[in-house]
Amino acid sequence: MFSPFFQALTEKGLGYIKQWLVAVLLGAQNIEQTKALHYSSLQAMVGHVIKHPSNQRAALRQMATIGNRDAILTFNGEMINVTGGSDFYYDPHTKHYTGQLKILDTWCPGVRLADKGINMDFIHTSDGYPVYFDTTDNFYDLRERFMNNVKRFRSLMGFPEKVTLTTIVDRGIFSMGVFSEIVQSPNEHIITWEKGYNNDKWDENKEYETGYIVKTRNHRKDTRLIYYRYQDGLWEKDTGMRQVIVRIMDNKWKILIEVSILTDDKKRDASEAIGLMLKRWVQENDFKYLIKHFGINEITTYAFVDYKDLKEKIEDKLYTCGRYKELTKD
Questions:
Q1: Is 232 in a helix, a strand, or coil?
Q2: Strands 105-108 and 113-125
Q3: Which of 36, 183, 233, 244 has the most Cβ atoms closer than 10 angstroms to its Cβ?
């Protein structure tokens, strides 16, 4: 099944990762688990292999360059024809770090508090296929990382400047600065939730439209219809943005929840924007499988780089402490 894929990897000069791809497909999520592999059989499948765990770590350390990562991501994008689409999901996946290193705090959803953590920002296609990721600490928060990652993704995958990409992202991106930058961009759109929406913008005297999406659950025949009503208009906080108020209904048209969707794309059909936001679960499903089968929430090395060694490579940031905010609040 995978021979054509491995052959394509070799032709692209990426054959050096075949050993670890096969190891992952066989269930070895980390170097320690590769001890259970039968290396004679593995060598018959993929050619030369590196056996001892310490030798594997040394080899992977050499291979773990930004250039190699970008080459693999580009190959992955070609495999799924990433440039054939223009709608992409963006989501940060945070790993709670419990080690002894002094790692910057970030919001860790797993424990529902701010603690030491590692951020992995993922971009998926609208069908849920992963096409880009970046791993970092919380020196730059999500709002700062977002535009940089979107621009790098566009450049890496070779999207022409005239192609407009739409990014669907959770409310963690909520920022007037980000919205302003997106509104002014000639080839970027955003769709997101309104943070802190108080269910108070639905106008009972205004006309509304209706629609539905089909949600697939445990298997392709296990589907559920989700109905909704919506009202479309400009966002009063920034008229460069469009606000779509959505009421999710049950099959008896009883209101289950009311949400506010924001987008700078004023030409797109509102039902498309709603559908994209309500189908973000395809991305969450991928995280579930990546964690279960590929171990993306496992830290595979204890190596680290001290900020003292990075002082010439990063820009200083002005940090506003809580005490200062408290004193200047009024």
A1: strand
A2: antiparallel
A3: 244
Percent of the chain clearing pLDDT 70 (strictly above) = 100
Nearest to 284 by CA among 80, 108, 124: 124
Strand partners, 133: 122
pLDDT tens per residue across span 67-80: 999 999 999 999 99
Beta bridge partners of 242: 234, 263
Nearest to 59 by CA among 17, 23, 27, 22: 17
**How many angstroms separate the CA atoms of 289 and 156, rounded?**
25
The confidence score (pLDDT) of residue 222 equals 83
d(CA 166, CA 267): 12
Instruction: State the Cα–Cα distance between residues 177 and 181, nearest whole angstrom.
Output: 6
Number of residues in the chain: 330
The DSSP code sequence of 142-169 is: HHHHHHHHHHHHHHHHT--TTS-EEEEE
DSSP 3-state of 179? helix
Long-range contacts of 11-18 (CB under 8 A, 24+ apart): 12/71, 12/75, 13/71, 14/68, 14/71, 14/72, 14/75, 15/47, 16/63, 17/63, 17/72, 18/46, 18/47
Of the listed ranges 59-63, 132-136, 248-252, 322-326, the one predicted with least confidence: 248-252
**Domain boundaries of the chain, sorted by first residue:** 1-64
pLDDT at 23: 92
Output the pLDDT for position 2.
86
216, amino acid identity: T
Convert the pLDDT of each residue in 150-199 to its tens digit.
999 999 999 999 999 999 999 888 888 889 999 999 999 999 999 989 98
Q: Identify which of 203, 136, 147 has the alpha carbon closest to the alpha carbon of residue 179.
A: 147
Global confidence as pTM: 0.89
Structure tokens at 33: 């688990």
Query: What does the H/E/C string look like for 86-135?
Result: CEEEEEEEEEECCCCCCCCEEEECCCCEEEEEEEEEEEEECCCCEEEEEE
| Whether the predicted pLDDT of 220 surpasses 90 | no
Amino acid in the structure at residue 251:
N
